[in-house]
Amino acid sequence: MLPKKRTFTEDIDTWQVVIISDPKQPLPRDAQILRLIDPARRVEYILGQPQVTLGQSPCCDLRLEWERLGELHCRLEWKQGCWWVIDLESADGFFVNGTRYRESELLPGDTLTMSDRTLDVDQIAVAELV
């Protein structure tokens, strides 16, 4: 039996690519796959399900052991036709393009900062991949 959540990690040309996908929670055909890119550490996170929890807890879809990152830090969610980041009452929160929010839309070209990490935001249309 396959695990409910799937996390794939692959090193490609010294970049680490982490894919979060759950076949039981596919993105709608009109959705965008969310890419979070950490150029300083050469890591790319590809989110292929409509809701992803992020934090240090083992129950998170994307578990990151970053300093000052909460156990359940935030949720990334495809809703109303775009990606949103929602704070889950973390102590340090997150910043989009340098401004702190409790909830914010994420657009290609934005930056998402949590802890001491800044991630570049990009998206790929699901329809382009099928």
Written description of the protein model:
With 130 residues, this protein is mainly beta. It has a single domain, classed as Sandwich (Tumour Suppressor Smad4). The protein is 3% helix and 52% strand. It is built from one helix and 13 strands. An eight-stranded mixed sheet has the order 1-2-4-3-13-12-9-10. The protein is globular and about 35 Å long. Mean pLDDT is 85; it is low at 1-8.
Kindly provide the name of the CATH class. Mainly Beta
Overall, the morphology is globular
Number of helical segments with 4 or more residues: 1
Low-confidence stretches: 1-8
Portion of residues in helices?
under 10%
- Return the CATH topology: Tumour Suppressor Smad4
> Quick one: how many beta strands?
13
Task: Determine Rg (CA atoms, Å).
Answer: 14 Å
Pfam families: FHA
InterPro entries: FHA_dom (IPR000253), SMAD_FHA_dom_sf (IPR008984)
Protein name: FHA domain-containing protein
Features:
single chain; 130 residues; mainly beta; Tumour Suppressor Smad4; eight-stranded mixed sheet; five-stranded mixed sheet; 1 helix; globular; disordered N terminus
SSE arrangement:
Elements: E1 6-12, E2 15-21, E3 32-38, E4 43-47, E5 51-55, E6 62-63, E7 74-79, E8 82-87, E9 94-96, E10 99-101, E11 103-106, E12 111-114, E13 117-125, H1 126-129
Parallel strand pairs: 2-4, 5-6
Antiparallel strand pairs: 1-2, 3-4, 3-13, 5-7, 7-8, 8-11, 9-10, 9-12, 12-13
Protein name: FHA domain-containing protein
Domain FHA: 52-101
